[in-house]
Write a structure and sequence with these properties.
4-stranded antiparallel beta sheet; 130 residues; 7-stranded mixed beta sheet; mainly beta
């Protein structure tokens, strides 16, 4: 049973920073897996923010966060991070961690931002930027 637990959310002023963490347990992938951060604001669709392909460390970002957010993975700790800097009010929302087995790096590169690319989700952590 895969379990993802996010933490690190909170309230911050514009221009501030936050670091989100997601601890993963219960999955047996040792390779070919991918992890991502999504966010959802009230009344809006859940959108892909950033993703990482574990095997080679390839990272992908939404245009809206490029240069401000950094996704990273600590394999040994089974922990995914999202370092967020220069935060804007439009970054507010609930941030979700997701994971799945991704056998094709090429396919993942094209599909990383789709909710359907991931079968396991955490409960989310709230980020509010004012």
């Amino acid at each position: 049973h895969v379990q993802l637990v996010e933490s690190g959310g909170g309230s911050v002023q514009s221009g501030g920073s936050l670091r989100l963490s997601c601890v993963a347990s219960g999955f047996t992938y040792s390779k070919n897996y991918c992890m991502a951060w999504f966010r959802q604001a009230p009344g809006k669709e859940r959108e892909g923010v950033a993703a990482i392909y574990a095997d080679d460390g390839s990272t992908y970002y939404a245009d809206s966060v490029k240069g401000r957010f950094t996704i990273s993975l600590n394999d040994a700790k089974n922990t995914l991070y999202l370092q967020m800097s220069s935060l804007k009010p439009e970054d507010s929302g609930r941030y979700y961690c997701a994971v799945d087995w991704c056998p094709s790096a090429a396919d993942f590169g094209r599909e990383w931002y789709r909710r359907t690319s991931y079968g396991h989700w955490g409960q989310g952590t709230q980020v509010t930027v004012s």
